[in-house]
Amino acid sequence: MTEEEFFAVLYSAMPGRVFTPIAPAGAVEPYLIYQDITSMPQNSMCGYAGLDEVHWQVDSYARTRREAKANMQSVKRALRSIDPQPTIENEQSLYETETRLNRRMAQVITWDDSTGETA
């Protein structure tokens, strides 16, 4: 899944409220922030297998904990619409004292088989 495809999935969960790597100044909550945190090329005995394991961090920000969790549920439903068993790890709820927003964080693992080459 390319970044464009990943963005489209998140956008389907919260249209117009998806940003990377930070929300713009004045963004009204709720909203999602995403970023790729790790990309690991997969190799075989013959070298690069043409596949990368990509770890994304998705953060749902909202005024209430309940809303932040509900928005993350929407993200998971959107992911399940394209993959019945998406890999979602390390979900946790946090409170950001600086912004006074509730945050629900999760790591999502996808596979990217694009080579990044152009014709």
Short description:
It is built from two helices and five strands, in the order αβββαββ. It is of the alpha+beta class. The chain has a five-stranded mixed sheet with strand order 1-2-3-5-4.
Describe the structure.
The protein has 119 residues and is of the alpha+beta class. The chain has one domain: STM4215-like (2-Layer Sandwich). Helix content is 24%, strand content 45%. It is built from 2 helices and 5 strands, in the order H-E-E-E-H-E-E. It has helices spanning 3-13, 65-82, and strands at 18-19, 31-44, 47-62, 87-96, 101-112. A 5-stranded mixed sheet has the order 1-2-3-5-4. Strand 2 (31-44) and strand 3 form a beta hairpin. Helix 1 (3-13) crosses helix 2. The longest helix has 18 residues, at 65-82. The chain is elongated.
Attribute tags:
119 residues, alpha+beta, five-stranded mixed beta sheet, single chain, Viral_Tail_Comp_sf, Gp17-like, 24% helix
Helix-strand layout with pairing:
Elements: H1 3-13, E1 18-19, E2 31-44, E3 47-62, H2 65-82, E4 87-96, E5 101-112
Parallel strand pairs: 1-2
Antiparallel strand pairs: 2-3, 3-5, 4-5
Helix pairs in contact: 1-2
CATH H-level superfamily: Phage tail protein-like
Strand coverage percent:
over 45%
Counting DSSP H or I runs of 4 or more residues, the number of helices is: 2
Q: Helical residue percent?
A: 10-25%
Order of adjacent strands in the largest pleated sheet: 1-2-3-5-4
Order of helices and strands: HEEEHEE
Largest sheet: 5 strands, mixed
**Total domains:** 1
Distance between the termini: 19 Å
CATH topology assignment: STM4215-like
